[in-house]
Design goal:
BLUF domain-containing protein; Alpha-Beta Plaits; globular; alpha+beta; 5 strands; Acylphosphatase-like_dom_sf; 4 helices; BLUF_domain; single chain
């Protein structure tokens, strides 16, 4: 089994409502634990940035579900690679909301303190998520 990491960005659609985020996190945590998928989700009320780790098959199945979820649009694959070890192995789905602390981290890895995942490279997105994991409390 090859471990794989996938990072994508997306924008919410009109199908996204105030309860959608909680539903996404709860369902992802249950499904990911069952499928041995780990990861992190960043969200700022408009954009998602997500890292998914696991076996190639399970990561691809998870991403396929995301591609077909009407709450997302403009889904862009930022990075996809085989990995030697997981970085989010303790998280079935960690969630990092936008905060003043995350603004400093956004600036470090992009051209702005505002969260805009379409304006960063896959490598920068990955490094930003690692820093968020180590610096901020998660929900």
């Amino acid at each position: 089994m090859f471990l794989t990491r996938l990072i994508y960005a997306s924008t919410i659609t009109e199908h996204f409502n105030p309860s959608s985020l909680e539903e996404i996190i709860e369902k992802a945590a249950l499904n990911n634990e069952k499928n041995n998928v780990t990861g992190m989700l960043c969200f700022n009320r408009k954009y998602f940035l997500q890292c998914i780790e696991g076996s190639r098959t399970d990561v691809n199945k998870t991403y396929n579900k995301i591609l077909n979820d009407k709450r997302h649009t403009e889904i862009i694959l930022l990075d996809y690679r085989e990995i030697n070890a997981r970085e989010f192995s303790n998280w079935s789905m960690g969630y990092v909301p936008t905060s003043r602390l995350s603004a400093q981290i956004n600036l470090k890895f992009s051209g702005s303190s505002e969260f805009s995942p379409y304006k960063i490279s896959g490598a920068s997105a990955y490094m930003m998520m690692l820093e968020l994991k180590n610096s901020l409390p998660t929900v």
